[in-house]
């Protein structure tokens, strides 16, 4: 039996977090439909449910960070070829195929400064996509299996935003749907 592989656990967290994000998107679309049809009670209930999903997602992201810290750096060279072939296929991209989350940090900060320090998420993501045109890989433009309308890179950029808020680079008290750079984010961009 192969030993536990921290990469498998990390992959499982990635899959779980992507699925939770897809569920949040579905709830958001349902809330938007309820609001458009002026069913404010349903919109309120949907907003509450979305808040619960977001809190759950944030707890899972925190657990993932805890796992990464606990497992330490994983060196693929430590695995022999038999262990590599016995790894479970968790239905996600192999590590290194998509653009890493951290690659979005600087472009997001640059775009925010360019847009005056704060802007709606859609406007920021559109511009980040232009800025990262030469960086994003073909696989980043493919839709998520869980949401065929969402390119992988947009989902990754939204996760980067979540991590940046937790690291203090973006403000956590901005209105819903608005991203805003913090003083620490401006400082990080200058550094």
Write up this protein:
With 191 residues, the chain is mostly helical. It has 2 domains: 6-86; 101-190, Arc Repressor Mutant, subunit A. Helix content is 59%, strand content 7%. The chain has 7 helices and 4 strands. The chain has helices at 6-36, 40-71, 81-86, 105-114, 121-131, 152-166, 183-190; strands at residues 118-120, 143-144, 147-151, 178-180. The strands form 2 sheets. It has a two-stranded antiparallel ribbon with strand order 1-4. A two-stranded antiparallel ribbon has the order 2-3. Strand 2 (143-144) and strand 3 (147-151) form a beta hairpin. Helix 1 runs antiparallel to helix 2 (40-71) and helix 4 (105-114) crosses helix 5. The relative contact order is 0.13. The model is unreliable at 1-6 and 75-91 (pLDDT under 50).
What are the key terms here?
two-stranded antiparallel ribbon; 191 residues; 4 strands; mainly alpha; 2 domains; globular; Arc Repressor Mutant, subunit A; 7 helices
Summarize the model shown.
This protein has 191 residues and is mainly alpha-helical. The protein has helices at 6-36, 40-71, 81-86, 105-114, 121-131, 152-166, 183-190; strands at residues 118-120, 143-144, 147-151, 178-180.
